[in-house]
Give the backbone structure.
Amino acid sequence: MDIGQTNTFALIDGIIVSDSSILEDHAVIISDGTIDAIVRDDQLPAGMAAHSLDGQWLCPGFIDLQLNGCGGVLFNSDISTSTLDTMHQTNLRHGCTSFLPTLITCDDNDIQTAIAVTREYQHHHPFRVPGLHLEGPWLSPNRKGIHDATQIRQPDSALLRLICDNSNTISMVTLAPEVCPAGTIEQLTDAGIRVAIGHTAATSTEVEQAIIAGAAFATHLFNAMPPLTNREPGPVGAILDDQHICAGIIADGIHVDWQNIRLAWRLLGSDRLCLVTDATPAAGAQIEQFQFGGQTVYYRDDKCLSADGTIGGSALTMDAAVKNSIDHVHIPLAEAICMATATPASSIGMDDHIGQIKPGMQANLTILDMHHSVTATVSDGVLMDWRDGTLNR
């Protein structure tokens, strides 16, 4: 049945997983790109077009808050709607239906271009790309990672004003609080931008002050920040100790040890810990090297490393992050799904539109088999079946 081109259809015979809960014996009715209703199987209207999930898991579409690139493309290298299209098409095969294109440290001209391109793309696809994530340029030179040291700088009034004036396009800004003048975080927060703490050498006290000022997220927890020690908890200790801040974490077994991911999950919970990929062109593509942060990054043995061994993003996909969280961290399926859906949606204020399966939400969904592998996705109400490596609409 050609479900994908039908305006109204039902997904039946699946196990619904949404917002840390599991629902069986119910069907999801999709109409004109949104979720119209969730009904018991015996209440499904007669004659409605239906697609059987054959007992598979039906989840909200995954949401990636930190995506530099994938499918052979990198947003920093080609700031264009074509790049965003390629990233989206690659994401769909891995269950990800919404993402924040992430621009790492660069000059003001590239930031302006990224704002304009993201705004144009948002106009056509508001739930596919909810906004832009600026990772830098206000970072610690001592915790820069792959970022270009020549472009790392302190905030100036012109760029700060540009970012605040475009808060309808910029969802998140990652910064090191210790390099920012007093009032910077408050200005960004007052403008409606989510401030994330990352690439920082801040003390725990400085992080606590940043949280009080409005910082509400932490970028790739544990990475690009000093470790927790007995006399200086640092960013890691302050974030794990706080009762409100959310954090992203890269669950690839390379960036963070599985035990540390489990620790973060136990302390923050699935309602404050998000799965992110920090992915690069190597995700979903067969390539050996790419340019990132002004350096050549080599993809070998699932790792993205520069010549000096600096990690340059990941080759992780959101479905692999979910599967790793279940298989290696031993997080229950419903909570792992929440960390890839409801929690990132709420972290960027989009939880009224995406991240859950309930009436009125955008019909962005992911279907997983019993091995937690993606077999199909629904994007803006269009069903795509990926079994056998083919697309069937």
In short: The chain has two domains: 3-59+356-389, 62-347. The first helix runs from residue 81 to 92.
